[in-house]
Amino acid sequence: MVSKMAYRCPECGKVFKDLKALRSHFIKIHRNNYCSLCKKRVKHYVMHCMKKKDDVWHLIYLVLIDGFSSLNEEERELAERLLVKMLRVEIVFTEAGYRS
Ligand SMILES: [Zn+2]
Ligand SMILES: [Zn+2]
């Protein structure tokens, strides 16, 4: 058995091999004008998450959509820790495939 670290999409639960793959999935599928955290429509998703980045999940979503570029050093470190804590999962490969 081989186990590997992966990242789980917080919106739909799909698992991706790395953060880059999760980010491109998130941007393609989940970036729209609806914030599932606030359960309301927003004009601009990135701006919306920026404004609410004191909230853990909005900070995570901001990074998923926009990367780390708009964050200062302190926020970046926090976001990196959060991504590992909240989204990283260990998947175990077995002969039958994998389970998470
Ligand atoms: Zn997803
Ligand atoms: Zn929101």
Commentary on this structure:
This protein has helices at 19-30, 45-51, 56-66, 73-87; strands at 2-8, 15-16, 34-35, 40-41, 88-94, 97-99. By secondary structure, it is α+β, with helices and mostly antiparallel strands. It has one domain. The strands form 2 sheets. A 4-stranded antiparallel β-sheet has the order 2-1-5-6. Strand 1 and strand 2 (15-16) form a beta hairpin. One zinc ion (ZN) is lined by residues 35, 37-38, 48, 52, 58.
How would you describe this structure in keywords?
100 residues, alpha+beta, four-stranded antiparallel β-sheet, two-stranded antiparallel ribbon, 4 helices, globular, binds zinc ion
Report the radius of gyration as a whole number of Å.
Answer: 14 Å
> Could you spell the SSE succession in H and E letters?
EEHEEHHHEE
Overall geometry = globular
Tally of strands? 6
Provide the helix percentage. Answer: 40-55%
**End-to-end span in angstroms?**
13 Å
* Count, helices: 4
Strand content: 15-25%
Largest sheet: 4 strands, antiparallel
Average of the residue pLDDT scores:
92
- Distinct small-molecule ligands in the complex: zinc ion
Tally of individual domains: 1
Q: Which secondary-structure class do the elements indicate?
A: alpha+beta
Going across the biggest sheet, name each strand in turn. Answer: 2-1-5-6
Q: Which residue ranges are poorly predicted, with pLDDT under 50 across at least 5 consecutive positions? A: none
